[in-house]
Write a structure and sequence with these properties.
Layout lengths: L4 E6 L2 H12 L15 E4 L4 E6 L4 H6 L5 E5 H7 L3 E6 L5 E7 L11 E5 L2 H11 L3 E5 L6 H4 L5 E6 L3 H5 L3 E9 L1 E6 H6 L1 H18 L1
Parallel strand pairs: 1-3, 1-4, 7-8, 7-9
Antiparallel strand pairs: 2-3, 4-11, 5-11, 6-9, 6-10
Amino acid sequence: MNDMLNVALPKGRLGDKVYALFEKAGYGCDDIADPGRKLVFESPEHGVRYFYVKPSDVAIYVERGAADIGVAGKDILLEYAPEVYELLDFGVGRCQMCVCGRPDFRDDPSRTLRVATKFTKITRDYYAALGRSIDMIHLNGSIELAPILGLSDVIVDIVETGATLRENGLAVLAEVCGISARLIANKVSYKFKYEAVTALAARLQGRIEVSQ
């Protein structure tokens, strides 16, 4: 069992997209096509064992060693700063972390800026780099409501198409960083399963380059 690579994939569309790349790279698993109630999917002939978890939990499984490698969004890696190696960018799930607010909002440096977000570390680091004092308001959902109802001046959140912002009279005011899915590895696994991990990463890189 320890000879196989344990792979944590994010549930949902992103997980389906990146698994397709694993499959094309030669690491397919027939059981995934008909999952039923199974939680773990093994492919001994390809030396991999897959399991799907909540996207925000992938980095925890990898950091703690329950998974040797996994696929996590760059937002998760920046927000929680897990002790893992980042091996490659899948180039899928692309979006932007942005500062958003009313289109006519103008920042007044003489007062503390009120910022609502669920990405508190990313937000703190971004404004610290700008030397801007902020009042952080941590929210878990419906972030767009904050500037609409006057709870905050702006928000920091992930923007994909911008449709929700436009429908609510908001706009992107600044881009913080780009987000996409990344292959990450447990540091101990990278050392002791180096050949298997790097071979898989190289084959995935080849498939990514072909698909782009």
